[in-house]
Amino acid sequence: MKRIMTIQDISCIGKCSLTVALPIISSFGIETAIVPTAVLSTHTQFQGFTFRDLTEDLDPIREHWKKEGFGFSAIYTGYLGSERQISIVRNYIHDFKTPDTTVIIDPVMADNGKLYAGFDEQFPQKMAELCGEADVILPNLSEATLMLGVPYPGEDAAPEVTKNLLKGLAKLGADIVVITGVTLSDGTFGFMGLDVKTGEFFEYGNPKVPYKSHGTGDIFASTFTGALTKGFPLYDALKIAADYVTACIKNTYEDPERVNYAVNFEAELPFLMQRISQK
Ligand code: PXL
């Protein structure tokens, strides 16, 4: 069985980071090895969340895994709580990346043009440096602009603006750069990407559902990581992720009993399974 390492926090309530990465990657039939960076009572969109920093555990976990000789098909990182954790992640990549390991970095730190609570203004620069270690990066528009130090153009940014951001991100060093949550020229909503080696742009979108919630970036990145590791070609893996996220948002939008802090990703796991089986 293939094994993916994912490094991010546990938000006990919030349906984000590890609490979506684990079920989603597992549903691809892939072992999910978790490196929990922190335990929070909820994600940071709530007031008064608790935060147990697990930084001190990260090096011992890495050392033990090294000693045991564990290998990984992919290393996927999401929310990291501090600059120190970013340097520790570098050590994980250094120790476990082989020619058969894909490094996927989702530089989770912002939405709607604003950094999440707890991050200082230096953080995006450090995250940008970490992105140089990745094969694939998956920022949203806010994260892309913060890492490039340019103004946030808003969710309805013109496709030409997004293309220019992709050209900027290409300089960070990853082979494939993708911006999620963007409006395409035909009015659909999805992702735009650039294959840095070939200079080829690509995009895919679905009709926009007028509903926004938290955790959708993590669902996208987890699904993409699972699908790519399962053997789907890059563009197909991105499309599966976009379709699943759209299904989750739509399901939530139509649910009169929805919660306002996350999407109904559980209810659409059968859709994801069906989508994967069409390989
Ligand atoms: O979904 C991204 C995310 C992950 N982890 C934590 C968060 C957020 C977004 O708010 O607060 C702790």
Count of helical segments?
Answer: 9
Query: Beta-strand level of the residues, as a percent range?
Result: 15-25%
Hetero groups: 3-hydroxy-5-(hydroxymethyl)-2-methylisonicotinaldehyde
- pLDDT averaged residue by residue: 97
CATH superfamily: Ribokinase
Specify the helix fraction band: 25-40%
CATH C-level label:
Alpha Beta
Order of SSEs, N→C?
Answer: EHEEHEHEEEHEHHEEEHHH
Give the overall shape, derived from the CA principal axes: globular
Strand order of the largest sheet: 3-2-1-4-5-8-9-10-11
Radius of gyration: 17 Å
What is the CA-CA span between the terminal residues? 18 Å
Name the structural class.
alpha/beta
Low-pLDDT segments? none
Question: Strand tally, please?
Answer: 11
| Quaternary structure annotation | single chain
* Main sheet characteristics: 9 strands, mixed
In the CATH hierarchy, the third-tier topology is known as UDP-N-acetylmuramoyl-L-alanine:D-glutamate ligase
Q: Give the CATH architecture.
A: 3-Layer(aba) Sandwich
Secondary structure layout:
Blueprint (H helix, E strand, L loop, with lengths): L2 E11 L4 H10 L3 E12 L8 E3 L1 H14 L5 E4 L5 H14 L5 E4 L4 E2 L2 E2 L7 H9 L4 E2 L3 H8 L10 H12 L5 E8 L5 E7 L4 E7 L9 H15 L3 H20 L15 H9 L2
Parallel strand pairs: 1-2, 1-4, 4-5, 5-8, 8-9
Antiparallel strand pairs: 2-3, 6-7, 9-10, 10-11
